[in-house]
Amino acid sequence: MVMAAHPDDSEFGCGGTIAKWVNEGQEVICIVCTNGDKGTSDENMTSEKLAAIREQEQREASKVLGVSEVIFLGYPDGGLEDTAEFRGKLVRLLRKYRPEVVITHDPKLRYMGHRDHRLAGIVAMDAIFPYSRDHLFYPEHKAEGLLPHKVKEVYFTGAEDPDVFIDISETFEFKVKAIGCHVSQVGDHSGDWATWVDQMARRSAAVGKSHGLLLAEAFKKIEPRR
Asked: Model's pTM, two decimal places?
C-alpha cells in the first residue's frame, strides 16, 4: 500500500518499485490523501477544475503502473492535519486491505519539505503503529468486520538517509510513462519525449550509482514494533 499526500507523489517517489512489485505478482493499493487542487501557476485555473484534472491524471498513471485500486481521500491540497478523523481513515484502510508493506513520505526531513508530505508521513506512521494494531482503537471498525492488522515493513520516500535501493531498470519505462500522465504538473512532453526520458534516467542513475545499480529508487526502511 502506498500512502501519498498528492496525485503524482507515488509515481515520482516509487513508481518503478510499484511496477516491479506488480510484475512480481504483488497487489498494490494507492491512497491519495489530498486532491492536489492548489498545484498550479495557471492564473485561469480553478481549484475545482484542477482537482478533477489531477484525479483523472492519477487514475491514468495508476493504470500504467498496474495499481489494483486507487483511493482518493479528498482533503484539500495543503490542508492535511493530524486529526483522529484522518488517522481513522488510514487505520480503516489498513485493516481492510491488510498490506504487508506500506510506502509513505519520510515525516522527519530536517529542512524544507511540503507540509502535506510531513503530515501524511506522521499520520500514516501513527495509523500503522499503534492504532491499526490494537483492537481498542477505533472499535467501530470491528462492527464492519475489520480486525486489527500489523504492517511488517514501512518504506519512506524522500528520506535523507536511505538504506534500501531498489533496481528499477526493468520498470523505469513504466515510471516515466506514469509521471508523464501528470501533464498538469510536468507539462506535455510528447514532443520531446526522448530528451525528457533521458533527464529522468539521469536522476534514477544518480540514485543507483553508489550501489552498482543502473537505475534505482531509494528508501528508508523500518520494521514497526510487533
From this structure: 0.96
d(CA 202, CA 122): 31
Question: What is the DSSP annotation of 35-99?
Answer: --TT----TT--HHHHHHHHHHHHHHHHHHHT-SEEEEEEEPTT-----HHHHHHHHHHHHHH--
Domain that holds residue 13: 2-222
One-letter amino acid at 99 equals P
Split into its structural domains, the chain has a count of 1
Letter string b/e over residues 99-133, b meaning 16 or more CB atoms within 10 A of that residue's CB:
bebbbbbbbebeeebbebbbbbbbbbbbbbbebbb
56: domain CATH number is 3.40.50.10320
d(CA 36, CA 78): 8
Distance in angstroms (rounded) separating the CA atoms of residues 70 and 59? 7
- pLDDT of 93 reads 98
pLDDT of residue 225: 76
